[in-house]
Structures are given as structure tokens and as C-alpha cells.
Write a structure and sequence with these properties.
Distance between the termini: 5 Å
CATH class of the largest domain: Alpha Beta
Oligomer: single chain
Helix content: 40-55%
CATH architecture of the largest domain: 2-Layer Sandwich
Largest sheet: 5 strands, mixed
Number of strands: 10
Shape: globular
Structural class: alpha/beta
Bound molecules: 5'-O-[(R)-(carboxyoxy)(hydroxy)phosphoryl]adenosine, zinc ion
């Protein structure tokens, strides 16, 4: 049954290495939000350390929630619901966010929503004001982050069809691994993009895995291996910056071309499912990459689609998207029991995501 929401919704994100809190009013307007990145905690280890992440969420979240509520000028009793990412992700962090959300829900007798983090990415484009005229269903989602790389037909809240995905690394993971090979630090995507700006993208003809094959699966491990072989031609630490820049630019170009090619097939598949589909939404950290965005924009235009990427702060992990997904579910009257256990793995097209027509 559709429900008229009249109170704000609190959202909590803690599935990976961002601790985030947001409060949205019932129309989706952001009343207050905060994102704490744990980047400096994990950087010395060259990647996210799950135990450090869980402890950092626990240390930061309670104070962050108090601050965000204060900035929004709200008490918990003013809320209409609490939503938290409950998977997929690192179990320690998911437990922290879910338990805090459940505690608030119990103490203030509020509805609780266990949000699928991927659904939160998928529905972000529907935040009021992000896409001109709104992102009406159905649309195609290309999710390209450090942990995910998939094409999804978004047909309604809870209604997702996975059209294809990576068979090995995620696109962001490939950026991170290549950046590490080049000695650029972590996370690698933004630094690699900066270095690539001064390089020649035609210098190395790296492989484009699965290019021009049917379907929209992805593969990046062969490309990463080819880069590793190129880097290994130089003694450790002796790769000149100009040559590192050529490698970075050539790698970035290969990824952009592969993503555009695969997304092109996904757009054709989407059209077959629904001839009215015309929107390609790109989300996840890799959507911040200029070369990737340009290649996807060109491909979308060639296929009569419009490509939109939410602003970078909504593309990367945040709690606004979690609160929004909670809001979309609460409007449909879909809530979760306090016995809902967080799920490290939770595919978007799992049973139970859709609860029926309002
Ligand atoms: O969505 P996100 O913040 O976190 C998750 O993985 O869920 O994405 C982070 C990923 C990292 O792998 C990072 O290297 C990549 O997105 N990334 C980029 C850029 N900015 C972030 N990759 C390429 N170019 C960028 N400018
Ligand atoms: Zn994410």
C-alpha cells in the first residue's frame, strides 16, 4: 500500500570505507549530511582493511549522527523512519550501521529499512533535481566502482534485472591495481587520471578484453596483466614519469573503450526489453573519470540514449542515497523486521527485493 510520508528519513552508510549519515525531508531534499572517508586509515595498507574499517565506523558513527541531526534541527522523535545499508559489503561495518539504526528505531518506535547498497546506487538518479524531468523507470544503470561493475535494468523499486557484470575485477579495482603497479598510492583512480593527462594514450596497444563480443559482461584481469608486463620491463623504481604517464593514459583509454563497448550492448539489450528506455545512468567512483564519461557520452548519443552521471559526491558512497532508497521503500509501505541480518553478499535481483505493487 502506498503511504504518504510526512516526516524526515535518516540514512546510514557503513558498508565499506565511508562512514556517512544523512537526513532527507519527505520529498527527498537533503536537510543535513556528512561523509567521513577512512582513506588515511587504510592508505598505508594499500587497500581497505575490514577490521580497521569496522572499528572506525564504530568510533565515528554515533557522533556523526548526533551532529547531522543537530544541523537538521531535528530530534529522533521527529523522524518517519531509519534506513541503513545492510549489504552487500564488509560484514563488520554492516553490523555497526545496522545495529545503530535498529537501536534508534527501537528507542523511538520508528520503522526500519534494511537498504541494499546497490539499490541505493541504482535509485540515486531519482533524487529530485538530479536528472532533468526526473529519472522515470525504466532506465539502464552502469555501476562502476571499486567493488562493483555491472549493467542493470532498473524497472522499478525492488525490480532489477542484471544484464551483465564483471567476470573478474571491478573497473575501479583495475584502476587501483594499475596505480599500485605504477607506484601511485591508494585509492588509485584519481591519481592515475591526473598522471594520464600528460601521457600519450596511443603509446601502448593494451588488450581490450571482450571488446565487440556479445552481451555486456566485463573482464579486466588480462588488461591489468598486460600493464604489469610493460611495467616489469623496467627495474623496480626506475620507470621514468613520462613513460608511466604513457602507460596510465593507454590503460585508461583501454578501460574507457571497453566500458563504452559493453555499455553499448547493454543499451541495445535494454531497448529490446523496453523500446521506450532512453536513459543511461552511470554511478560509482569510476564515473568520476573524464575519459570514461566522455566515451560513455559518445556511445549513448550514438544509440539515442542520454547519459547522466550524478555529481561525484552522490556517485561515490554516501548516506543521501541510502536515505533516499529508504524513503522510496517507506513510501511503498515496505519496511524490515529488526531481526534482519546484514548480508555480505546480496545481489540486486535477489528474491524479496520486490514486495508487490502498491
Ligand atoms: O564508489 P566508490 O567510492 O566506492 C566503492 O568502491 O564502492 O568507488 C571507488 C573506486 C576506487 O576504485 C577508485 O580508484 C575509483 O572508484 N575512482 C576512479 C576515479 N575516482 C575514483 N577511477 C578512475 N578515475 C577516477 N577519477
Ligand atoms: Zn558503493
Amino acid at each position: 500500500m502506498a503511504i504518504l510520508l510526512t516526516r524526515p528519513v535518516l540514512g546510514i552508510e557503513s558498508s565499506c570505507d565511508e562512514t556517512a549519515t544523512a537526513v532527507l525531508d519527505p520529498t527527498g531534499r537533503v536537510l543535513a549530511e556528512a561523509v567521513h572517508s577512512q582513506e588515511t586509515d587504510h592508505a598505508p595498507f594499500g587497500g581497505v582493511v575490514p577490521e580497521i574499517a569496522a572499528r572506525a565506523h564504530l568510533a565515528v558513527l554515533p557522533g556523526q549522527i548526533r551532529q547531522v541531526m543537530a544541523r537538521a534541527g531535528l530530534n529522533f522523535a521527529d523522524l518517519g523512519g531509519v534506513a541503513a545499508s545492510a549489504g552487500p559489503g564488509l560484514i563488520g561495518g554492516l553490523i555497526v550501521g545496522s545495529q545503530v539504526a535498529k537501536g534508534i528505531a527501537i528507542a523511538h518506535r520508528l520503522p526500519y529499512v534494511a537498504v541494499n547498497h546497490l539499490e541505493a546506487h541504482a535509485l540515486t538518479a531519482r533524487l529530485p533535481g538530479l536528472v532533468p524531468d526526473g529519472a522515470a523507470f525504466p532506465y539502464l544503470l552502469l555501476l562502476v566502482s571499486g567493488g562493483h561493475c555491472q549493467c542493470v535494468a532498473v524497472e522499478g523499486v525492488g525490480q532489477y534485472v542484471r544484464l551483465g557484470g564483471t567476470i573478474d575485477d571491478a573497473a575501479g579495482e583495475a584502476f587501483d591495481k594499475v596505480a599500485k603497479l605504477l607506484g601511485l598510492g591508494w585509492p588509485g583512480g584519481p591519481v592515475l587520471e591526473r598522471l594520464a593527462a600528460s601521457g600519450d594514450s596511443a603509446r601502448h596497444d593494451f588488450p581490450r578484453p571482450l571488446l565487440r563480443r556479445s552481451g555486456c559482461d566485463f573482464s579486466f584481469s588480462g588488461l591489468k596483466t598486460a600493464v604489469a608486463r610493460e611495467v616489469a620491463k623496467h627495474p623496480p623504481g626506475a620507470l621514468p614519469v613520462s613513460q608511466a604517464a604513457n602507460i596510465a593514459a593507454s590503460f585508461q583509454r583501454a578501460v574507457a573503450e571497453v566500458l563504452a563497448d559493453r555499455a553499448g550492448n547493454a543499451m541495445a539489450m535494454m531497448r529490446d526489453r523496453d523500446p521506450a528506455a532512453r536513459l543511461l545512468v552511470v554511478a560509482g567512483g569510476v564515473a568520476a573519470n573524464g575519459a570514461v564519461r566522455a566515451a560513455l557520452t559518445r556511445e549513448a548519443e550514438a544509440r539515442g540514449f542520454i547519459m547522466v552521471a550524478p555529481p561525484v559526491r552522490f556517485c561515490t558512497d554516501n548516506a543521501v542515497m541510502v536515505a533516499w532508497a529508504g524513503l522510496e521503500r517507506l513510501r511503498l509501505g515496505w519496511t524490515d523486521g529488526l531481526d534482519f541480518a546484514p548480508r555480505p553478499r546480496w545481489p540486486l535481483d535477489s528474491e524479496g527485493m520486490f514486495r508487490g505493487v502498491a
